[in-house]
Write a structure and sequence with these properties.
Elements: E1 2-4, E2 7-9, H1 23-44, H2 46-49, E3 66-69, E4 74-76, E5 85-90, E6 93-97, E7 107-112, E8 117-118, H3 122-125, E9 132-135, E10 139-144, H4 146-155, H5 159-182
């Protein structure tokens, strides 16, 4: 089965013994059909709009292209390595700095909604998660493979400008939150 530019090509799935349907292939086909509409949402994100001519499906994590996080479940932990770039398709989450002995209360940096990304800035410095992200409601996210994404970005260095614009906006948002917090 192959998904290209919003179209779905259906290929018959036959079990390896040639008798009856291949249930594993049918399950994958169903997952890919669902991903078609989610990939369309991904194409509308400012960063991924510059990926004209690039098949975003090829950038999805091969084993688990779609992730579901339950309320209160961590999506990314501050200080942990970024293993996937996550693109929220549904649900809400919060990004916060963990509490420390010097600051006993977690500091909320941002509220994330569909269209938000987690781990995207690691493409610049390969750094760990700068904040903890926790699901507020059930969150569905597409998982992009950072290594494949990095290869594409190296082929198109102008995409780093879009990434820099996103980083600047996040920095401004964080500064606004902090200013409001400190009064």
């Amino acid at each position: 089965m192959e998904l290209r530019q919003g179209t779905l090509q259906i290929v018959p799935h036959v079990a390896p013994n040639g008798v009856g349907p291949d249930l594993d292939s049918l399950q994958q086909a169903g997952e890919m059909a669902v991903l078609g509409s989610e990939l369309a949402v991904l194409h509308r994100h400012p960063f991924f709009q510059s990926f004209r001519g690039t098949d975003l499906q090829d950038l999805l994590h091969r084993e688990r292209p779609c992730r579901i996080f339950q309320p209160a479940e961590p999506i990314g932990l501050q200080g942990d390595p970024v293993t996937d770039i996550l693109f929220l398709v549904s649900g809400r989450a919060r990004a916060h700095l963990n509490a420390t002995p010097a600051s006993p209360q977690a500091i909320v940096l941002d509220l994330l909604s569909p269209g938000s990304t987690v781990g995207l800035l690691s493409l610049v410095d390969k750094g760990p998660h700068s904040a903890t992200v926790t699901a507020i409601t059930q969150v569905k996210a597409l998982a992009l493979d950072p290594e494949r994404l990095q290869v594409e970005m190296d082929l198109h260095p102008d995409w780093y400008r879009t990434l820099a614009e996103i980083a600047a906006q996040r920095l401004r948002n964080s500064a606004t939150w902090l200013q409001a917090l400190l009064g």
